[in-house]
Design goal:
This is Abortive infection protein-like C-terminal domain-containing protein. Pfam families: Abi_C. It is a single chain. This protein is mostly helical. It contains 5 helices and no strands. α2 packs across α3 and α3 runs antiparallel to α4.
């Protein structure tokens, strides 16, 4: 599914900004779900909101800004970046839900939507997904050393 999203984005970016924005949101969602499935973190596949999926994925990988971990991942600077990146990823869902991306029919035309807006969304999605997938694959990532995967006790979704 992640590779399908990359293909859709590549095709849409130059000529269909709305499709690229919608696909960028889908890429973030697919990446978050992949992490949660790989780590065995339960979530509601059909009803989970993007915000919740992003939050769960970052917590599971100990990349949530509120997570306390030793080393560079726990530094104030990295936490600030992680918080900003989390907000950026969540903003993709908001941008798409406001009618600027495919998936929700806009009440009015998408007048003014330009390729630069699509590049903004795609760049944001790429940055978030790259960090998440790199951390999932990193054999030395802090999440591998913690059994709870950064989830608060009793958290399921």
């Amino acid at each position: 599914m992640i590779l399908d999203s990359f293909d859709r984005i590549d095709r849409a970016l130059p000529t269909d900004p709305a499709q690229a924005i919608g696909s960028a949101k889908e890429l973030v969602e697919a990446t978050a779900k992949t992490v949660l499935i790989e780590l065995g973190v339960p979530f509601e596949d059909k009803t989970a909101k993007l915000r919740a999926l992003i939050d769960l994925a970052q917590r599971a990988l100990l990349l949530h800004p509120q997570t306390q971990v030793p080393g560079p991942d726990g530094s104030n600077a990295v936490k600030r970046i992680l918080g900003g990146l989390m907000s950026v990823a969540m903003g993709l869902g908001e941008l798409r839900n406001e009618g600027w991306g495919t998936g929700h029919a806009p009440a009015a035309s998408r007048a003014g939507l330009r390729p630069r807006h699509a590049h903004l969304a795609v760049g944001a999605a790429h940055t978030w997904c790259q960090l998440i997938l790199d951390t999932l694959a990193d054999p030395a990532a802090p999440w591998r050393k913690h059994a709870t995967n950064g989830l608060p006790s009793g958290s399921t979704t």
